Amino acid sequence: MTSLPLAGEQSRSVSQATRLRGEPRLPGDKSISHRALILSALADGECLITGAGDGRDVQATAAIVAALGVTVERVRDDGLNVDYRVVSPGADGLHEPQDVLDCRNSGTSLRLCSGMLAGLPFFTVLDGDVSLRSRPVARIIEPLRLMGAALYARRSDTLPPLVVIGRPRLQAIDFTTRVPSAQVKSAILLAGLRAEGSTTVREAVATRDHTERMLRSRGIEVRREPATSPGGGPVAWTLEGGARIAAQDERVPADPSAAAFWLVAGAIHPDAQLTLRAVGVNPTRRAAIDLLARMGAQVGETAVGGASGEAGEPLADLTVRSSELRGIDIGPDEVASAIDEIPILCLAATQALGKTTIRGAGELRNKESDRIAGIAAGLRALGAQIDVDGDDITIEGPSRLVGSPTQTLDDHRLAMTFAVAGLIASGSTSIGRADSAAVSYPSFFTELERLQA
Length: 453
Ligand code: S3P
What we know:
The protein has 14 helices and 25 strands. The chain is α/β, with parallel strands linked by helices. The strands form 7 sheets. A 4-stranded mixed sheet has the order 2-17-19-18, covered by helices on one side. Strands 4-5-3-16 form a 4-stranded mixed sheet, with helices on one face. The chain has a 4-stranded mixed sheet with strand order 6-7-9-8. Shikimate-3-phosphate is lined by residues 31, 108, 181-183, 186, 208, 339-340.
């Protein structure tokens, strides 16, 4: 690995918009794109992945699986999404990488690839940029060690770089996650594929279930208990080790976390009407849509593509128009389901009548930046009333936002939140290191300009 650059370097200015109209193009779901690459790497044969998000995070996972001996070919890219042709010899044909594996800014690459590598007989080192080196890894070291892999990390096994010494045969475990985390759950399930017996992961709150759906669609039996319930509530996932993953083509749906920026932009702007096509509306990912509706946002939803949709996922066309919002109370379970959308929901709350409380948001401190500190500082700079008390955030609205400089802490979701704020703030809002948006949404600023045309 050569350098450890910060994710973004450019600044951008966004001016107040007179109207917003159109259909922003969305990146392929980031979570599903990572998983499609990893599952294709573990399957023996060829898979075509269509419409993967071409953000830097997914590119990091593509480079990691390529370093293990998988052919990863970019067969089409349009500056936002990419089609990959992946040809793998299967899990037993992969080889030890010659270099450090660079996860760049991507916590998902770090955690999910650790789960895959735990079941492969290699010595690997996973590293990344300055932000990634502050992301917690004890949460994956503990279960993967119990399964028989050896893992070591800096600062008494808490921070990357992370060393994984895997074994081709692991022990199955029955593990309850300490924090609601789809990354931890997925790492354990991926390792469980290479374990003897049945591996169970229990979570107090159901987190995104893409890994489970995608494993099922590739022929792996993944049991859920209770068998059916909407998102939220305790759930246990079980799979049997030793089964082979089928090579299979994947179509990646549009990313609901990216869509959330436009849903909020449309709801808070006084003259807006936006449409978002074929967005993933998986029950474990759609909390932001439902929270916005609870705030009074005029969001329309039309199911598309049949009941199961792409990659085993339900899809919908979404519309949003200018809305009168009101403050709501968001509890810890809802925070877990809307973890990536909390920054943009905080912006929505600044335009809602009354008080919005977001309780138990501590996990936001462990993201690409300390998102609680970052969102509070940025929204305050724009004139919002936002208070932080421990892990709870309170926002009093509505506030008239005034264009000002904002700092993104090199965090893509903060950069995009402050850019959307700039559409309604008077004057001009400058966004430091705005280029970090390309971590998940390469054409974000192009879409932002197009909607104002
Ligand atoms: C992700 C899970 C979430 C989320 C991240 C993507 C995933 O992280 O914040 O952007 O793809 O599994 P945690 O599982 O750590 O909450």
